[in-house]
Specification:
Layout: H1 10-17, H2 56-67, H3 71-77, E1 79-82, E2 98-101, H4 115-130, E3 142-145, H5 163-169, H6 172-188, E4 193-194, H7 218-233, E5 250-254, E6 268-269, H8 273-280, H9 284-289, E7 294-297, E8 301-302, E9 305-306, H10 311-321, E10 327-329, H11 347-352, E11 357-358, H12 363-376, H13 381-397, H14 418-431, E12 433-437, E13 448-453, H15 458-462, H16 485-495, E14 499-502, E15 515-521, H17 543-553, E16 558-563, H18 571-575, E17 579-584, H19 591-597, E18 669-672, E19 681-686, E20 688-693, E21 701-707, E22 712-717, H20 724-728, E23 731-741, E24 747-752, E25 758-762, H21 764-768, E26 775-781, H22 782-787, E27 797-803, E28 806-818, E29 823-824
Protein name: Glycoside hydrolase family 3 protein
Domain ExoP galactose-binding-like: 687-816
Domain Glycoside hydrolase family 3 C-terminal: 432-645
């Protein structure tokens, strides 16, 4: 990774960081060459949690409470379990301090559970935590959830644009209103803590979490983190809890999760302390000054040392120089990644300053080991007491000890309420960035408009972290209070006296349309599933470009509305369009797009384009890190770019040279749409053969036939890849198959890692239960193969199917997919 020039002005930088600009210029001769893992607090900005967090009344209450608590109860406060791996009854034995619902966790495993089912579940946990038991001090639980862009876990909630779009608004006041609406919708369903705001500064758009950041420049993050904190929590008052409808926030991920090498999720930020401060720390002081109650430590590393175990950063900088008085929580089992630790044992993390372990499925063993480590002195009692005091302090300020009767919980009419949807619609409109307009926008009143592509797909427009972790498999019916982009366009076009027709494939009958609006872009993803090797859009088959060109060839002006979680190289698509709009991931209020694109009867749209790029747009797909101020900065569209109706500009024909993309390998796609992407090969060895077939489309399937004259193996093979992160992330092998001839001998599904290891699962009953000639899909958890002996860090064959008997199977899809409660281990 190249060292990058900080983006703050020299005057403000010297005041904030206490360093002169030359020391931060990124010149190798001026920066230490030895990897540094020890922070120097005097070089960092100063901040301070408001005195209202540690007021005398609160601290006296905590002191009295802690006198009654046993070691076991204190340790329990420092551990958080996930609802998918525990039940309320567990709290009778294990006095945990918090629960969470992770990305794919929901009541009874139902991602579409009703709001009432959520409140009932949370109340069941609360009841058990506060039950009177001999020798037990009742202490309320905190319920945490990732409300990443609105309360995205609940059917019917308002889904706001992802942060990548919000950064383009440059509107801190609107950010605060978004925070307030989000907090209320979480509180309505019983939550009292969200893991946000995200104050990461993504420096490499190949990172799968880039869309969780507001921008590549710390100026945007710093301007938003305080207002978002105030929106979620409100202003804190001495001796009083936060107001009803407000919830605790968590600034994350401390620190430099957006600065990892090659944009790798949970990777290593190889940067100087100066860059750590000037780029990645700038969002924390405003949030701390505004009263943020929790901070989440990052999975990632700084110069090779995991942040969760870095005492100089957590204790000396965050709790010292930055004056943070709330508590620090880890990310999902992140403590287990520390050297010498496991998911069930990690005193190093608490001794470094971590206050609460997020131990979703490891909570029981971790609780038992941590109790032993405190009693043995391996974790000092003073450190435990400090952690517990901080946790109780946040619980007091969150009003958990004052919950006499819910004041907001249960008011389900506030989910997706008209006023919240209006805020989201405004955010959608303000987040749009106009990259090109050759006079086709705004759409004129009375026009005959063809709308094509994915315009009627709210799930795609919402992206990852929507109802499920990866955001896949959503239908418009899952957004009963929402409106698709198509819905908004149709409404606006017809209101202006025009006609709108939806045709996903761009085909039309009758009169030629006056204009076509094509909505297309990235499919939903989250975290590591979104990591990419380069910024090329649709590198393995440009179907969207073909659609644009087809419409242009018919003499129809084309408006492209591009959905993405990051800037991508789309020069060919821009050239094939008369207007090109970066719409990011706008969420559930598609009408906000129409507010800008479509003119009313007066010839004017409701809003002009005001969005400006908060991420630089690439000129080539191989540019990698591309940030304002870095040496050699050469974007297609610079940071801050954005056209408008009031200030138009001509965009000429762009270069369609993608650059050197190398041989990008697919880690998670093995056979899709009739293709076997590099570096994989699909082959048959032994008694049988495989052939290409048509399965609903030309040559999109393969049929494997076993003769029964010995062992036969159909396998995807290639160079070893590391699937350990996918395994811990609860991913699964998705296979779409059709049984053409039923098995008569055992059939095994395998993941191979060389001659000496591998995992084999018996899937005979799964295949035998399939109706001959009927297409089916199944998701087999990667963890099943790991449990069967596969070494997931060195997988050379992510799919194998073997039997010694006669069998015929057809396949159309083999790839990794998110477990959304539908994956299993064969029995």
């Amino acid at each position: 990774m190249k060292l990058r020039r900080p983006l703050l002005r020299a005057s403000s930088l010297a005041l904030t960081v206490g360093l002169t600009l030359p020391a931060l210029a990124g010149e190798p001769s001026l920066i230490a060459t030895t990897p540094q893992t020890t922070a120097h607090p005097e070089l960092w900005p100063s901040a301070k949690s408001p005195a209202s967090i540690t007021d005398a009344k609160t601290e006296a209450f905590i002191t009295d409470l802690m006198k009654k608590m046993t070691i076991e109860e204190k340790v329990g406060q420092t551990i958080q379990g996930d609802i998918a791996s525990m039940t309320p009854a567990d709290l009778a034995t294990y006095p945990l301090g918090s629960i969470l619902a992770g990305g794919n966790s929901a009541p009874d495993g139902n991602d579409r559970a009703t709001p009432k089912a959520w409140t009932d579940l949370v109340d069941a946990y609360r009841k058990e935590a506060l039950a009177k038991r001999p020798g037990r001090t009742p202490i309320p639980l905190m319920f945490g959830i990732d409300a990443v862009h609105g309360h995205n876990n609940i059917v019917g909630a308002t889904i706001f644009p992802h942060n990548v779009g919000l950064g383009a608004m440059r509107d801190p006041a609107l950010i605060e209103r978004i925070g307030q609406a989000t907090g209320e919708e979480v509180a309505v369903v019983g939550g009292d803590w969200t893991f946000g705001p995200t104050v990461a500064v993504p420096r490499d758009d190949r990172w799968g979490r880039a869309y969780e950041g507001y921008g590549e420049d710390p100026e945007i993050v710093a301007s938003y983190s305080g207002p978002m904190t105030l929106g979620l929590q409100g202003k804190l008052s001495p001796g009083k809890p936060i107001a009803p409808g407000r919830i605790a926030g968590s600034a994350k991920h401390f620190l430099a999760d957006g600065g990892t090498q090659d944009g790798r999720d949970q990777g290593n930020a190889v940067i100087s302390e100066q860059e750590l401060v000037a780029i990645h720390a700038q969002g924390y002081p405003p949030s701390i000054d505004a009263g943020i109650l929790t901070v989440m430590a990052s999975f990632s590393s700084w110069n090779g040392q995991k942040i969760t175990g870095n005492k100089t950063l957590i204790t000396d900088v965050l709790k010292g120089r930055l004056g943070f008085e709330g508590f620090v929580v880890s990310d999902w089992n992140a403590h287990g990644q520390l050297q010498g630790c496991s998911n069930v044992s990690c005193p190093q993390a608490m001794n470094a300053g971590l206050d609460m372990y997020m131990a979703p499925d490891s909570w029981k063993g971790l609780y038992e080991n941590t109790v032993k480590q405190v009693k043995s002195g391996e974790i000092p009692m003073a450190r435990l007491d400090d952690a517990v005091r901080r946790i109780l302090r946040v619980k007091v300020k969150s009003g958990l000890f004052d919950r006499v009767a819910p004041q907001v919980q249960g008011k389900f009419d506030r989910l997706g309420s008209a006023d919240h949807r209006a805020v989201a619609r405004e955010a959608v409109a303000k987040s749009l960035v106009l990259l090109k307009n050759d006079g086709v926008l705004p759409i004129k009143a009375g026009a005959n408009v063809l709308v094509a592509g994915d315009a009627d797909d709210i799930g795609k427009a919402s992206g990852g972290w929507t109802l499920t972790w990866q955001g896949t498999g959503n239908k418009n019916s899952d957004f009963p209070n929402g409106q698709s982009i198509w819905g908004g366009l149709k409404e606006a076009v017809e209101a202006a006296g025009g006609k709108a027709t939806l045709a996903k494939d761009g085909k039309f009958a009758g009169a030629k349309p006056d204009v076509a609006i094509v909505v297309f872009g990235e499919d939903p993803y989250a975290e590591f599933q979104g990591d990419v090797a380069n910024l090329a859009y649709q590198p393995n088959g440009k179907t969207d470009l073909e659609l644009l060109k087809k419409l242009k060839a018919q003499g129809i002006p084309v408006v492209a509305v591009f959905l993405s979680g990051r800037p991508l190289w789309v020069n060919p698509e821009i050239n094939a369009s008369d207007a090109f709009v970066a719409a990011w991931l706008p969420g559930s209020e598609g009408g906000g797009v129409a507010d800008v694109l479509v003119a009313g009867k007066d010839g004017k749209s409701k809003r002009d384009f005001t969005g400006k790029l908060s991420f630089s747009w690439p000129k080539r797909a191989d540019q990698g890190p591309l940030n304002r101020g870095q040496p050699g900065y050469d974007p297609q569209f610079a940071y801050g770019y954005g056209l408008s109706y009031a200030k138009p500009a001509k965009v000429g024909t762009l270069s369609e040279s993608a650059g050197d993309l190398g041989t990008a390998a697919s880690v998670d796609r093995y056979f899709v749409a009739g293709r076997v992407p590099a570096p994989w090969m699909l082959s048959f060895s032994g008694a049988g053969a495989v052939k290409t077939i048509d399965a609903g489309a030309q040559e999109n399937g393969r049929q494997a036939t076993w003769t029964g004259e010995g062992e036969g193996l159909l396998a995807v093979q290639g160079p070893p890849v590391d699937l350990s992160r996918q395994t811990t992330g609860d991913m699964a092998v998705l296979v779409r198959w059709r049984v053409d001839k039923a098995p008569v001998a055992p059939v095994y599904l395998t993941v191979g890692c060389g001659e000496s290891c591998g995992g084999r699962l018996d899937v005979t009953s799964t295949l035998s239960g399939s109706k001959i000639g009927e297409w089916r899909s199944a998701k087999i958890k990667l963890s099943c193969f790991q449990a069967a002996g596969a070494q997931m860090a060195h997988v050379s064959s992510p799919f194998g199917l073997s039997t010694s008997g006669p069998l015929a199977i057809s396949l159309t899809e083999i790839q990794l997919a998110s477990n959304e409660g539908d994956a299993f281990c064969p029995k």
